[in-house]
Write a structure and sequence with these properties.
The structure is a single chain. The protein has 380 residues and is an alpha/beta fold. It has 2 domains: 127 residues, 2-Layer Sandwich (Enolase-like, domain 1); 237 residues, Enolase-like C-terminal domain (TIM Barrel). It contains 13 helices and 13 strands. The chain starts with a strand and ends with a strand.
Length: 380
């Protein structure tokens, strides 16, 4: 079996209301936009993957990297040579950029389909369900965050992640306190400062002293972890902070490749490692980070905030592990709803009692929705 064709599509599904992610200050997101990749074998199997984009122009650039450069090595290749082909993907990711990690993911989808089983089982795991945390995406305020947390609890979630990025970090502390007062001990609270990469001066940039003050400020609020309190390359600052506070430190969603994660691991920067297989170097990198983190007694919980296909990819990785405390479940139901996030799929991933069932289908266990692809996708 070999790869016979490559297809790419720009997918753009409108949101019910504009979404204002804390990680891109002053940005109003009006649609779920991504590049969808199909690798088609000579006997008709399709391996699918996706990468989030901001625009059709960005999708076309990524399409050039994926189809016109990396693609020359894919046509005629055996998908089972995924590890070798992943090296090609990493090489072009280094030379050209663009985060072309969706190519490796689509290859793994084919491998799972060729084996006839979900990838989590192919990789040796047997988990059928994962506990979720409701991951909010907009800034948590004293006025609205308690209501949001109570709504998440009513929806069955037992954990919620808040976004902390006020210009004065003490307002973030007050929002966390308000949520803890509202939910009592019925929910775990996680906090994301989104300092792994910043758009200063548009955004809020924490220095070490601010991160230290915030982390110490939430220690008595039983916060499960504080995510990305410093820049992803501030290895020494992260290690120093982790040693100075009691609250666990999480991060790594956007670090690129094993060379960066090795520094994080060697300096003992994090308690929880969160590489997203679609953002941080690919499936193989995410799985290796998980292996090394767990061997060191640290935790692994992948970032999933991209789209429905990206969620499926990281879900399979998490389900293949013996330990993953929570899986991130993007949750802004009025805008970034499951229906909008997963619009390209035949079935959205729906939480039930704060958990998610692992798909039983082969590969990543998802299929594209022909109607949605016909309405919202453009062949590039």
């Amino acid at each position: 079996m070999s790869i016979a064709a490559i297809e790419t599509y720009f997918f753009e599904h409108p949101l019910a209301r504009p979404f204002h992610p804390t990680w891109v200050p002053m940005h109003e997101q009006t649609a779920n936009r991504c590049l969808i990749l199909k690798l088609i074998t000579d006997d008709g199997l399709e391996g699918i993957a996706a990468a989030s984009v901001f625009s059709e122009e960005q999708a076309r650039l990524l399409r050039f990297i994926v189809q016109d450069t990396i693609g020359q090595f894919l046509i005629g290749a055996d998908p089972k040579d995924v590890e070798l082909l992943a090296e090609v993907v990493r090489l072009y990711g280094f030379m050209i950029g663009g985060r072309p990690w969706l190519v490796e993911a689509a290859l793994w989808d084919l491998v799972g389909k060729m084996a006839g089983e979900p990838l989590c089982r192919y990789w040796g795991g047997a988990r059928t369900e994962l506990e979720l945390y409701a991951s909010t995406g907009e800034l948590a305020t004293v006025e609205h965050a308690p209501e949001r947390a109570l709504a998440a609890r009513d929806a069955g979630f037992r954990a919620i992640k808040l976004r902390a990025r006020h210009f004065d970090y003490r307002e973030d502390l007050e929002a966390v306190r308000a949520v803890r007062a509202a939910v009592g001990d019925t929910m775990r609270i996680l906090v994301d400062a989104n300092q792994g990469w910043t758009l200063s001066p548009l955004g809020v940039k924490w220095d070490y002293e601010t991160a230290l003050a915030f982390c110490r400020g939430v220690e008595d609020l039983d916060v499960y972890w504080v995510e990305e309190p410093l820049h992803r390359f501030d290895y020494d600052g992260l290690a120093r902070l982790r040693a100075a506070v009691d609250v666990p430190i999480a991060g790594g969603e956007m670090n690129q490749g094993m060379h960066e994660f090795k520094v994080l691991l060697e300096k003992d920067c994090l308690d929880v490692y969160q590489p997203d297989a679609t953002l941080a170097g690919g499936v193989s990198v995410a799985r290796e980070v998980a292996r090394l983190a767990l061997a060191r007694g640290r935790s692994f919980s992948p970032h999933t905030w991209t789209n429905g296909i990206g969620f499926a990819i990281n879900l399979q990785i998490a389900a293949s592990l013996t330990e993953c405390p929570f899986l991130e479940y993007p949750w802004e139901p009025e805008s970034w709803s499951p229906e909008a996030r997963d619009a390209m799929l035949t079935q959205p991933f729906l939480a039930k009692d704060g958990a998610i069932s692992v798909p039983e289908g082969a590969g990543f266990g998802v299929t594209l929705n022909p109607e949605a692809m016909g309405r919202f996708a453009k062949r590039l």
